[in-house]
Amino acid sequence: MAVTKVETRRSLLNAARRVVVAKGYAAVGINEVLAEAGVPKGSFYHYFDSKDAFGEALMKDYFDDYFATMDGIAGDPHSTAAQRLMRYWQYFYDTQAADDCQGGCLVVKLGAEIADLSEAMRVTTKAGTAAIIDRLEAMIDAGVADGSVTVDDTPRSTAEALYDMWLGASVIAKIHADPAHLDRALAVTRQVLHV
Q: What CATH architecture is 1-48?
């Protein structure tokens, strides 16, 4: 059975995510991604117009997967909004504590790098992080509505502050190879949400 262009593109994006999360974006060459995906050299431009377009597709693909996970957590009808929020933060914790706190979040791994390197990737990452905050705000709103969460600021400001804190804690945990900063972020999150 022949492999379709869509399947090969998917294979390239999956391979790139594995390699890029370990090495960063600028350090990874197209040939390395092709080799990791088992795709013949020289065929990259059949799937992407440029490395920049490839990086943009990589980030969009990452956010699509992330949103699916978030939406699955947020959509659980058998738990309170507070439980769903804490399940999300535990997912964030587990993802970032993996591999001696090297984590798997492309925003943490690439945020500063791509902001200087690629306008298309920066804009995609900006939109993706804004959509994460939108989802967090909706979860906090739901918690206020069902009485399982109380916040001292607006749900939007709370969502922004918590997400910013978690990104920072993830970077410091990565630098120290120690989840203590993630532990602190989890404790502060519970205090901020009063759960």
A: Orthogonal Bundle (1.10)
**Other residues' Cβ atoms within 10 Å of the Cβ of residue 183:** 14
pTM, two decimals, is 0.91
Per-10-residue mean pLDDT of the chain, 195 residues long, equals 76 90 86 89 84 90 95 96 97 90 83 86 95 98 97 98 96 93 97 97
| Superfamily the domain 51-193 falls into | Tetracycline Repressor, domain 2 (1.10.357.10)
Domain ranges of the chain: 1-48, 51-193
Cβ atoms within 10 Å of 192's Cβ, excluding its own: 18
Are the C-beta atoms of 43 and 34 separated by less than 8 Å? yes
